Amino acid sequence: MSPTSRFDIQLAQPRLSDEERAVRMQNLGFGKVLSEHMVVVPYQEGEGWLKGSLKPYAPLCISPAANVLHYGQAIFEGFKAYRQADGGIKSFRPKANGRRFNESAARLAMPEIPLDIFIEAADLLCTTDMAWVPGTLDAARLHDQSYYFRPFMIGLGDFLGVKAAEEYLFLMIGGPAGAYFQGGIKPVTIWVEEEYVRAAPGGTGRAKCAGNYAASLLPGKLAKQRGCDQALYLDATHHKYLEELGGMNVFLILQEGNRTVITTPEKTGTILEGVTRDSLITVARELGYDVEERRISIDEVEQAHRTGSLKEAFACGTAAVISPIGTLMSRRGTWVINDNKVGEISTRLRAALLDIQYGLAPDTRNWMHTIR
Ligand SMILES: Cc1ncc(COP(=O)(O)O)c(C=O)c1O
Question: Are 79 and 215 contained in the same domain?
Fold first, then answer.
């Protein structure tokens, strides 16, 4: 089916002028500026996914009894499109995000959406709002700019019983994203959270559902009050093994004898299986590094810091790609990593992945999806 037959098209009238858009795009941070359209696809039990529409970005009108407002049937995703050297636009691994979206949907008893609708929705939104995809390759790459897609799904209905909704809305909004680090990449300080947990075995940790993020807001706020940027969670059973940050996966670079090992917590079902995590593991192995996915205890990190074998640490995710960790703080003390400087391997991996995303290195794994 072509996008035009799958979606009704209702364009914003009038569109913003080039001057107005340029003003809004002046100080791009993350998620502050949204482009002019959105995609909406309704779902009705018994009928399935109905014809979607592309329409002007506007508030939604839903019942006050909608499931999402009381019982939190809400999932989302995040991925990006990048300006290429030839002026074209490509998104990074949208299928991986679509598949993870459907895994989240299944965990929350929501309907799965066909991957081709998920991807066409993004392509349609991005081509309609193409003027919002930052600049030329030089400018975009220099300023780490991109277009960020936010697909999400909510449970509707007009009924207060605790059960899965029978009606849903799939939506896609998006907008230009600027550098995650204003003024250049710099290491962050992370609070190791030993009291609050993010996810327990059998829970929803592996799903990208709204409730996980609501639960992370208080520990995130407490981390900030302690002078840290974010919290790093430990496992819920032993309060001992590293899991991930509120919105990023975590990696350590350890020196084991004469081996340098890029190490990350294994997939336990309680962490979000990041697309960036997976991509960095692949890229690191291609660059010849040893990579291990395994359990890492906080005691091991403390010891590695003490003995000097903890060489670098970083968090990773779609928004920042790699965010170097310069300091870990906890009740046990403050551990400065690599003199609080951006490490060599973190820098190399970050550049290698960004080069693929901006089309400056060959896309040997077919990760890039052509939008135009
Ligand atoms: C809890 C959590 N972990 C990890 C990630 C990194 O995932 P990705 O690399 O797919 O952006 C995210 C971001 O989406 C996240 O919210």
Answer: no
Residue bearing the CA closest to ligand 1, atom 4: 248
**Model confidence pLDDT, tens digit, residues 164-189:** 999 999 999 999 999 777 667 899 99
Which domain, by its residues, includes 103? Answer: 3-177
Residue to substitute in 212, 276, 281 for testing ligand 1 pocket (most ligand atoms within 8 angstroms of CB): 276
CA distances from 300 to 241, 250, 304, 309 (A): 9, 15, 6, 10
Helix axes 344-357, 275-286, angle to 10 degrees: 110
Where is the domain boundary, 177, 200, 235? 177
**What is the position in ligand 1's atom list of the atom closest to the CA of 275?**
10
> In degrees to the nearest 10, what's the CA dihedral of 224, 269, 343, 193?
30
Same domain, 165 and 255: no
Q: What average pLDDT does this structure show over 344-359?
A: 96
| 300 phi and psi angles, rounded to 5 deg | -65, -40
Angle value at C-alpha 264, between 368 and 145, nearest 5 degrees: 35
Residue nearest to atom 13 of ligand 1 (CA): 247
Same-domain check for residues 195 and 283? yes
Does one domain contain both 247 and 170? no
Counted domains in the chain = 2
Calculate how far, in angstroms, residue 294's C-alpha sits from the geometric centre of ligand 1. Answer: 18
Residues 55, 166 within the same domain: yes
Q: What confidence tens digit (pLDDT) does each residue in 77-116 have?
A: 999 999 998 889 999 999 999 999 999 999 999 999 999 9
What global pTM score does this model have?
Answer: 0.96
Determine the residue of 209, 249, 316, 367 to mutate for testing ligand 1's pocket, defined as the one with the most ligand atoms within 8 A of the Cβ atom: 249
Of 126, 127, 113, 119, nearest in space to 169 by CA = 113
Asked if residue 97 and residue 70 are part of one domain, the reply reads: yes
Domain boundary among 177, 201, 219: 177
Both 193 and 304 in a single domain? Answer: yes
Rounded Cα distance, 174 and 148, in Å: 5
Residue nearest to atom 7 of ligand 1 (CA): 274
Q: Are 69 and 171 in contact (CB under 8 A)?
A: no
Top mutation candidate among 318, 350, 353 for ligand 1, by most atoms within 8 Å of CB:
318
Residue 186 tokens, joined: 């710099």
